[in-house]
Write a sequence for this structure.
């Protein structure tokens, strides 16, 4: 269908709407949204401006407004314009309300409150920044998760994604002929995961990296045979240490992180089961 206008109206930051829209749109290859994001919408005057914009650029309207008066104005305005208007959280809130036996509190932006989880995410992010790419190995024991792998296997972006989930994550590169920090082999609490990918893919990624740095001379860094040795060495190391390995060749950072979290949670479930035997 090509381009279309998509209006995202939120009484908070709009992150929820944007994430849901993104997750839905990947199922429609030919759809190209022109996004109009309206965040922190909490007054009638703001809504009047939004409805005027929808009139000029008609399209699908998705919203998260907990105030009944505001959502009523938006829904009426969209009906008058003949455009679809969907409250994306209604089915989820209704399900929670029925299951929990209580009404939703209808307070906008409560997920962004400065609560304990918020500060845990900040602490995790600070930790990850300080322990990226093998830095400060003496602090590895304080991590929740430690990622290891050869260069360009998405260790850093995956680490930061996990830290945004409140998980303190360090990452350590595996380099041929370069000793790994001794602390890595004596960890008691952190969960260590190896990341790998196919040598062909890794070679191409590294070549693109050098091009982005305007480096034209090829080195052993992009040599396919050398890369094969690196990948084999890293796999053998992880297997010897009993660290699970995830192949990131066909995974996005989000998918890799989801798999890591699954393994991480399973580890604690297994440990709990062992304690109850």
């Amino acid at each position: 269908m090509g381009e279309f206008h998509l209006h995202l109206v939120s009484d908070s930051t709009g992150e929820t709407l944007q994430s849901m829209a993104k997750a839905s749109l990947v199922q429609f290859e030919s759809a190209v949204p022109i996004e109009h994001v309206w965040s922190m919408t909490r007054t009638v005057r703001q809504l009047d401006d939004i409805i005027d914009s929808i009139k000029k650029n008609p399209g699908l309207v998705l919203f998260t407004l907990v105030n009944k008066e505001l959502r009523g104005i938006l829904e009426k305005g969209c009906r008058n314009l003949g455009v679809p208007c969907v409250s994306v959280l209604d089915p989820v809130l209704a399900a929670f309300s029925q299951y929990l036996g209580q009404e939703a509190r209808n307070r906008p932006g409560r997920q962004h409150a400065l609560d304990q989880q918020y500060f845990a995410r900040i602490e995790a992010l600070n930790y990850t920044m300080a322990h990226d790419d093998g830095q400060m190995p003496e602090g590895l024991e304080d991590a929740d998760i430690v990622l290891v792998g050869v260069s360009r296997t998405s260790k850093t972006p995956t680490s930061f994604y996990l830290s945004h989930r409140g998980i303190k994550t360090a990452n350590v590169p595996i380099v041929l002929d370069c000793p790994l920090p001794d602390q890595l082999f004596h960890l008691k609490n952190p969960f260590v995961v190896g990341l790998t990918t196919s040598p062909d893919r890794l070679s191409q990624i590294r070549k693109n990296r050098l091009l982005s740095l305007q480096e034209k001379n090829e080195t052993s860094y992009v040599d396919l045979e050398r890369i094969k040795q690196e990948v084999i060495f890293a796999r053998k190391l992880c297997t010897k240490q009993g660290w699970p390995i995830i192949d990131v060749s066909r995974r996005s950072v989000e998918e890799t992180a989801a798999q890591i979290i699954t393994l991480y949670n399973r580890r604690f479930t297994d440990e709990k089961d062992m304690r109850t035997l």
The longest strand covers residues 2-10. The chain has two domains: 2-111, 116-275. The CA atoms of residues 9 and 38 lie 5 Å apart. Confidence is low (pLDDT under 50) at residues 272-277.
